[in-house]
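Much of our argument rests on the idea that a fold can be written as discrete symbols. This step matters because it turns folding into a mapping between discrete strings. The record that follows shows the chain in one-letter code together with its fold in token form.
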Amino acid sequence: MQSDSQLCQSCPILATVPISDAILQEVYSSDQAMYPVNLPYSRLHSWVAATTPSLSMSFVFQDPHASSASAMSCSDLAESGCTNPSTDSNPDPSSELTGSSASFTSAAVQSSDGKIAVAGVIIVLPLLKHHWLDLLQGKLKESEIDPVTMFPKEQERAEQVEVGLHVYHIERFAVPRREKQDWKSALKGKKFAEFALDEVMGRVEREKRRWRVLGQSALTATQNGQRAFRRLGFVPTGYREFFVEKGSENGKKMFDMICTYVEDDMFEDLKGSDKSVVLRSEMTVKYSAN
């Protein structure tokens, strides 16, 4: 009888590539529709530019037997037109969602329209300790994160720097039925959130960065996101945000963001008022064991 590894020797695996502008625009648009904060696209772009390829990346199916003749570079990938498979199939209700230059040296499995199918994406922001602690407590808002002043600098690598890794966005895109088994094999028995975070932490260790990682955090704004991070051992910090509809302006809905810092009855008070709470998000954290 053949082992699982023998049976899957020809199964596609998940490779990582830089996040294309097209995918980043999709991420931005979907986040703005779901989580209505004042975050300019230029700031999101600066986060990704500062964290690629180690902490921010797309995942694509890769043929393990691709020859060097069919190898693709990042520029090839960008020109080929990355596509989110969820635009070609029904979204998977179990998808997990929260709020450059690396070489790609193997051929990616292509979707039916000939474009490279992006299976998922993760964006992680490394924050210096005091900024990260402020973020956990709500003193620093996620949209205020400045990569220039709040990320560790290269010259600080001479001495160990304490950082917290904030997961800004993690999402598993819908997978076509024909690739379901390939997907399960590629994840090696893990959920996508765990797989993607393990990839990030593995890169931090392999690159021998002079970082002491204090923990990981995530601002969850959907039930799927909350469940995904709860499974990974994340717990609420007590900081929450409520978005309350306050009318419209020029046909666009307007919202107030009400922040709470301890467990209280704010949500029940809001439900009992004439205000409409359209979204609740909460900050979660998982501290490192060391």
User: Anything to note?
Assistant: Residues 4-229 form one domain. The longest strand covers residues 235-249. The longest helix spans residues 192-206. Confidence is low (pLDDT under 50) at residues 1-7, 67-97, 99-114.
